[in-house]
Amino acid sequence: MAVVVGVVGLVAIDTEGGAAEGEGEGKGKVVEPLITRIAFGSCANQSSPQPIWNAIIDFDPQVFIWLGDNVYGDIRRPFKLFGKERTIGPWKNAPRFIPSSPQELESRYQKAKINPGYARLRHTAQVIGTWDDHDYGLNDAGKEFGGKITNQKLLLDFLDEPQHSPRRKQEGVYASYMFGPMGRQIKVILLDTRYHRDPLRSDGSVLGSSQWTWLEKELNGPKSAITIIGSSVQVISNHTAATRPLFSLESWGRFPTERNRLFKLMADSKREGVFFISGDVHFGEISRYDCATGYPLYDVTSSGLTQAVEKAVPPVFSFMVRLVAWLTPTTMRVTNQNCRFRSCTYGQPNFGAIEIDWSATPVTLKLEVRDMDGYPVAGVKFPLVELQLHGSMPSVKAGEYRRHCSLEVDLPWNIKYRLAILLYCSVSVLLLTVMGLGYSATFVCRLLLHKCKLD
Ligand SMILES: *[C@@H]1O[C@H](CO)[C@@H](O)[C@H](O)[C@H]1NC(C)=O
Ligand SMILES: *[C@@H]1O[C@H](CO)[C@@H](O)[C@H](O)[C@H]1NC(C)=O
């Protein structure tokens, strides 16, 4: 309890039920502390060591935001091609992921909560958050998932959501927060991209109608200098367009109609200073879309706190992962001199760091992805006025390419499918070489045999 009391007053929660501005009201106006540092992260395996908390604590954030896969709550079965339960292959007959019991999920949250690093952070920062699929209860799950009501309670318990909070009564875990004093306020809007989400490939809804109504109110509500929208899945990058048919990732891009609705709502609200933060993909990346609203829309992706693509392969193959990241075409990724690697993605454990320099003229914003030691591996720094409406929106003509404006799907096919083409070509060359060698060997043998006979 002491933990909660220590940081209360930093925030006025305002969920769907419209909790009042709270705390200070009636006791005279409380001046909200100025917020200059916010950290965020996603994808933390509660059973793995989590040394990254040290770096996060060193960054000394006033607020920490969970963006989902806060624990791995479901059960992952091994890849099995043969046997009674086959989890991959065309003859697959068993799911690769299954939900665990509520008791099991609760004990996994307990384990996460008592992690010494995280426990320390909870003392010094206010922790808020939303979920993604694995803590929602099942890999890639959406509205059809049966365990969502129970699991909503478990997430909110993990986040120490007060018992009377309206967030416990609504369908889904979306919420919004207002931090900081008047004129320098930061609004954080956390979306729920699971509870109401239609199946993948349906181009249906991501948020569902009640959450849309709420979001519209939030964006059109009281102004704030900065508005951070947290989405578990990426909003700007649509990597699937360029990684098909090899593999696909979840993102708002997979629901193009819904994504356009989001951009239109943002443009119509004329709200300034908005950017996204996201997780899910097991690598870090900063992307930017200039043709959605009247100013550049950034999406800072940090994933994960423990789960990262390069850790999924033996260290000698790390370069392969980086090569694939570098070869995957992208139109949205921000590439600059601040990146540790050429690809400007980062496939080792990482967290997101947001810094606002309110005393600079003009006020500046620094958005970074940082590594396990707290060093930046990707970053952008710009004056906050860059996120103000500048009248006309840039656009692209058909067949024309513009960085941060053309969609990945509109890239010429030979670029878009570069990864698949390269892989198939390499495999073909390999096969041909093997066949060629085999043929040559047979030929030489025949020749030798023939020679023997003649002798
Ligand atoms: C989490 O870590 C444990 C222990 O290292 C491991 O057995 C488990 O497979 C991991 N889970 C995921 C989803 O990576
Ligand atoms: C994202 O890529 C998928 C797969 O190619 C495509 O179906 C979808 O329309 C794309 N979305 C956007 C917004 O370009």
UniProtKB/TrEMBL annotation:
Domain PhoD-like phosphatase metallophosphatase: 168-326
Keyword set includes Transmembrane helix: yes
Transmembrane segments: 421-449
UniProt keyword list: Membrane, Transmembrane, Transmembrane helix
Entry-linked Gene3D superfamilies: PhoD-like phosphatase
InterPro entries documented for this protein: Metallo-depent_PP-like, PhoD-like_MPP, PhoD-like_sf
Protein name in UniProt: PhoD-like phosphatase metallophosphatase domain-containing protein
